[in-house]
Amino acid sequence: MSRFEESAPARGGFSFDLCKRNEMLVQKGLKPSSYLKTGTTIVGLVFQDGVILGADTRATEGPIVADKNCEKIHYMAPNIYCCGAGTAADTEAVTDMVSSQLKLHRFHTGRESRVVTALTLLKSHLFSYQGHVSAALVLGGVDVTGPHLHTIYPHGSTDTLPFATMGSGSLAAMAIFESKYREGLTRDEGVKLVAEAICSGIFNDLGSGSNVDVCVITKGKREYLRNYMLPNPRTYVSEKGYSFSKKTEVLLTKITPLRELVEVIEGGDAMEE
Amino acid sequence: MDSIYNDLNAPHSMGTTIIGVTYDGGVVLGADSRTSTGMYVANRASDKITQLTDNVYICRSGSAADSQVLSDYVRYYLHQHTIQLGQPATVKVAANLVRMVSYNNKNMLQTGLIVGGWDKHEGGKIYGIPLGGTLLEQPFTIGGSGSSYLYGFFDQVWKEGMTQDEAEKLVVKAVSLAIARDGASGGVVRTVTINKDGVSRKFFPGNTLPLWHEELEAKDSLLDGLSAASPEPMVS
């Protein structure tokens, strides 16, 4: 009995005993166990010509990764994009709804949408639901009044900032921004910083994962860089491939894309009664 | 570890220190700049002094969402009122509108406010509207979580008929004392001075504030590189 008590660490602090054991097991051929991740990292920053938005691409259902490559940067207007963290259904629904409202507003006014319009529509919707619509957003865009970047919280409060992060990985990403951000970044420096911040969230947060999406918005132009970085490639692919059981009767081993079978008519006649 | 993530979903609140003082000829409003979500500082440079009209400003504390929406509504009502009246709105009307919204929705709102401004009928006036929707016209008032540390200070230091310079210095000193003691207040000190000549906004970064008991000089801080005229890019 006394032997067991002696082996327990009497002092506080981290005990590295198990690390040594893990190293020994890896050398003997044991594969280290994988980590489960949940959550999001979304960021935005203002650079000299406009705004840059970034996001990771993992969507989770509790402990399961539901989508390894989802799109978290949502279209609001040709000059405005919005990253969404929180409940995926809520972010999709609220950004789609406001995007439609903005389009109708553009028809009504005949002008390019402004970022503050999107901001007010989003914040009033979220406030009226008192935080039950769980959508935390980073809204960015360039309009006639210049580049704008805002964060919107589920309860409906907003902040206007030169750089912003949201989601469970926001602390990791904010650490990168706070140490490396400065005013008047060039496009390449900005994209690099955004990618670095998202990677920091992907690797350091029990939060995010998979790939990095980036969106650069400048006056009159936007570049949606889907999967700008893929830092988590699939490392093991089985050589055997996939095969059917012996009882299966194989009829055809050729794959025909359906598009070739469909005739697309350009500028056809309108439907008539 | 989990408690940190739970807190990130907490409602965005402004711990805050807000102050409004009258002086001979106008008012000075002051506030810190920290907005916190649980234990995380969501915005370290927020602007808690919001404009309602050309001559009336409001300091917001408590729930960020509630205070932002309330000031948006009151700005809208005041704009309508100004058009209908044909003259700039008085500070008393602005304060009463804020009180009406705050009192009638007392069950749903959680926000303490200070309305301050200058008009030609009454001069500089400060109105405090705490939780619940009371309206109190006072020569000076303090609010927010950091105000607890300032009651004794103001009792001793306050005097009627200060000059603009004295009033501004008093406000900056008070906010910086509260920042030193209140965890939910921090960042920079913002002041807005309103008098018959108009409105002037001032900004005091954290490193220009005096050091209080047991506070140490900043050493090797990131701000050293930023004070240069053209900042050099950080090299990793």
Characteristics:
heterodimer; A: 273 residues; alpha+beta; five-stranded antiparallel beta sheet; 6 helices; 30% helix; globular; disordered N terminus; B: 236 residues; Glutamine Phosphoribosylpyrophosphate, subunit 1, domain 1; six-stranded antiparallel beta sheet; 13 strands; 31% helix; 30% strand
H/E order of the elements of chain B?
Answer: HEEEEEEEHHEEEEHHEEH
Mean pLDDT of chain B: 89
N-to-C terminal Cα separation of chain A, in Å?
Answer: 92 Å
Give unreliable regions of chain A as ranges.
Answer: 1-5, 34-38
* Range of helix content of chain B: 25-40%
Order of strands across the main sheet of chain A:
10-1-2-11-12
| Content of β-strand of chain B | 25-35%
N-C termini distance of chain B: 29 Å
The mean pLDDT of chain A is 87
At the first level of CATH, the class of chain B is: Alpha Beta
- Biggest interface, which chains? A-B, 26 and 23 residues
CATH topology of chain B: Glutamine Phosphoribosylpyrophosphate, subunit 1, domain 1
| Structural class by SSE content of chain A | alpha+beta
CATH architecture identity of chain B: 4-Layer Sandwich
- Strand content range of chain A: 25-35%
Q: Could you estimate the helical fraction of the residues of chain A in percent?
A: 25-40%
Number of strands of chain A: 12
Pfam families (chain B): Proteasome (PF00227)
Active site (chain B): 16 (nucleophile)
InterPro entries (chain B): Ntn_hydrolases_N, Pept_T1A_subB, Proteasome_bsu_CS, Proteasome_sua/b, Proteasome_suB-type
Subcellular location (chain B): Cytoplasm; Nucleus
Q: How is this structure best described in words?
A:
The complex is a heterodimer of chains A (273) and B (236). With 273 residues, chain A is an alpha+beta fold. In chain A, 30% of the residues lie in helices and 26% in strands. Chain A is built from 6 helices and 12 strands. In chain A, a hairpin with a 2-residue loop joins strand 5 and strand 6 (80-86). In chain A, helix 3 crosses helix 4 (115-128) and helix 5 packs antiparallel against helix 6. Chain A is globular and about 65 Å long. The termini of chain A are far apart. Chain B is an alpha+beta fold and 236 residues long. Chain B has one domain (2-211): Aminohydrolase, N-terminal nucleophile (Ntn) domain (Glutamine Phosphoribosylpyrophosphate, subunit 1, domain 1, 4-Layer Sandwich), CATH 3.60.20.10. Chain B is 31% helix and 30% strand. Chain B has 6 helices and 13 strands. Chain B has helices spanning 2-8, 64-85, 91-104, 151-157, 164-181, 223-226; strands at 13-14, 18-23, 26-31, 35-37, 40-43, 49-53, 56-63, 111-119, 123-129, 136-138, 140-143, 189-195, 198-204. In chain B, strands 1, 6, 7, 8, 9 and 10 form a 6-stranded antiparallel beta sheet that branches. In chain B, strand 12 (189-195) and strand 13 form a beta hairpin. The longest helix of chain B is centred in the N-terminal third of the chain and has 22 residues, at 64-85. The radius of gyration of chain B is 18 Å and the shape is globular. Chain B starts with a helix and ends in a 10-residue tail after the last helix. Mean pLDDT of chain B is 89; it is low at 1-6 and 228-234. The A-B interface holds A 39, 123-124, 126-127, 130-131, 134, 151, 153-159, 161, 168, 170-171, 178-180, 182-183, 189 and B 5, 8-9, 11-12, 35, 37, 40, 42-43, 45-46, 63-65, 68-69, 108, 222, 231, 233-234, 236. Chain A: The active site is at 40 (nucleophile). Chain A: Belongs to the peptidase T1B family. Chain A: It holds the Pfam family Proteasome. Chain A: Keywords: Cytoplasm, Hydrolase, Nucleus, Protease, Proteasome, Threonine protease.
